[in-house]
Amino acid sequence: MSAAVRWVVALACESIPIRETWALHAVKSATPYPMFCSDDGMHWLVVSGVGRIHAAAATMALHLVSGAPKHAVWINLGIAGHKHLAVGMARSIHKINDSATDRVFFPVDVIEPAFDGAVLNTVDSPAESLSGDAFYDMEGAAFFQVASRLSSAERVALLKVVSDHGARAGEFPAKAFVSQLISAHMPSIRGFIQRLESVSVEEYTRLEEPPLFHRLAQQFSLSATHRIQLRDLLRRHAAMNSVDEVASWADECASGRALIGRLRTSLEDKTVDWRVI
Amino acid sequence: MISTIYVEDAVRTHPRTREIIARFDSATVIDIERYGEVFNRKNQNFRLQKKRPALIIARKHAGHVLATPPGYGIGGLHNYYFSHLLNCLYDCRYCFLQGMYRSAHYVLFVNYDDFVSAMDDVLSRHEGESVYFFSGYDCDSLALESITGFAEYILPVIRARPHAWLELRTKSIQTRPLLDVEPCARTVVAFSLTPSEVANAIEHKTPSVARRIAQMAKLAQHGWPIGLRFDPLITGVDWRGQYDRLFDAVFKEVPSEQIHSVSYGPLRFPKAMHRDIVRLYPDSPLFAEKMENDAGMIAYPSTLEEEMAAFCEERLLHYVPKTVFFQCTPEKA
After folding, report:
1. Which residue of B has its CA nearest to A200?
2. Alpha carbon distances (Å) from B185 to B124, B178, B213
């Protein structure tokens, strides 16, 4: 049972503290986006480059190359502009305004967030003058749109660190400074990721096939309908705590049809004992 | 308890909104245009949201009061329901809300006056006749009373309208607003009950059945009409014994003369809803029992359903007359 964490960052210098914390190593891929992976395969990271198109494309590329499972959690971590928050302050994003489409997105916190909440405006070019009490970046909205399709809104998080109070096109903070800004928050981010991992594991448990399914589906010749029935009957046996019983006689069944029949009839005389649930 | 509050622009300055925000001063407040931006969007997960539901404060624009499905009622000819609140504090595994919405956030419509206007419209359509309004369809009527103040608001409304009846459907023991005032003969406080063995296993975050019964007894002593809703009926090992003990416990504490109505109903889900709920909670024993498709509704086999209904009716008749039995579930299609 394993969590799955997928990181999307715009800049290589933003990725350094993450790569160091989770000991990610470079992975060769046929995509133009640098990717990194932990030895256990739990954490994957892609460096998208700047801008919404690259953010969306890199998120999708990471999904495909890493074989991201349905229970994966997705994180976009990076620097952003803010009119008045001090450089180095970090926030969890709870609302995203997409300036290109005027659409609004809402990541959903189901665990304690890493930082206080803030609004993010995703723009298409660096914003020289920032307004309101919002962060400004160039990737967040696109990342969220794609990641929340691959996952669900509860398993997508955006974390932003103030790097400037407005920047001109082509002007970026020094790479080492960006890495420092992110590094300073790694203890909080690490704790947050642990909490997210537990969400990922919970989803894994919910989505996984019932016990014995893979073995029996492979062992018996089953039609598509029988596979669906097998999954549902094994789910019910698991909920009734009678998987061991199934394991004791399943191999004796002469055919897939016989297996399905016996799984069904063996549930007939079972009913839930609520006192022991 | 509430760490995030979304607020629709239209009700940002509503006194009720201000009051709620002031109460949760450490909550993050997020402005939204319409609650649909946040609530029930695609790719949301009810089960995960249930871990930390947010409160959405919104305005209800239409459909404030709707007719109940045919066959639903507690003795009146004209039956309507309304939902000033969507979703519930509790997490009962049989609840249809988990299959109805993709979001577990609570949506509170604070324009209570518009609900009352709609009730008045309905009352004027049935002039001189009793009209029953049911409030606990999409929520528990009292569980979030400390936030909504809805019961406190609606009781004087009902008192002032001699043909209006109200059912507050609840599992909550937060009944202070009812115990602090004179009872209203046309407001039924209806408690949902399952045997304690079932409640302990699948009615998560609810007060125990014993505490609910104790609260019912207090309300009955105070003079409030009490409704008993044994809904849904849940099977299991020794279900007859469990229901026997439940009925005994209820009628030992709650005087029969204060029982306004009793109803019991089967466990049933529309097929698509059942599929969605099982996907959310595949490991729940509730969905391991044998169930059948009865004209698009997934339910226990009809023989079991009928046996449970007949058993409960027979036992309940030991305590209350058949005249107070009603059906609070929609008729079969």
Report:
1. B48
2. 21, 12, 20
Complex-level ipTM: 0.94
Chain-chain contact of B47 with A206 (C-beta, under 8 angstroms): yes
The reported pTM is 0.95
Q: How do residues A201-259 score in pLDDT, each as one tens digit?
A: 999 999 999 999 999 999 999 999 999 999 999 999 999 999 999 999 999 999 999 99
- Dist. CA A223–CA A159, nearest whole Å: 46
Record: contact A239-B290, CB cut-off 8 A = no
Backbone φ/ψ region at B71: left (φ over 0), alpha (ψ -120 to 50), beta: left
Q: Give the SS3 label for residue A113.
A: coil
Q: A218 vs chain B: nearest CA distance in angstroms?
A: 22
Instruction: Please return the burial class of B105, using the count of CB atoms within 10 Å of its CB with bins 0-12, 13-18 and 19+.
Output: buried
Chain B residues with CB under 8 Å of A205 CB are: 283
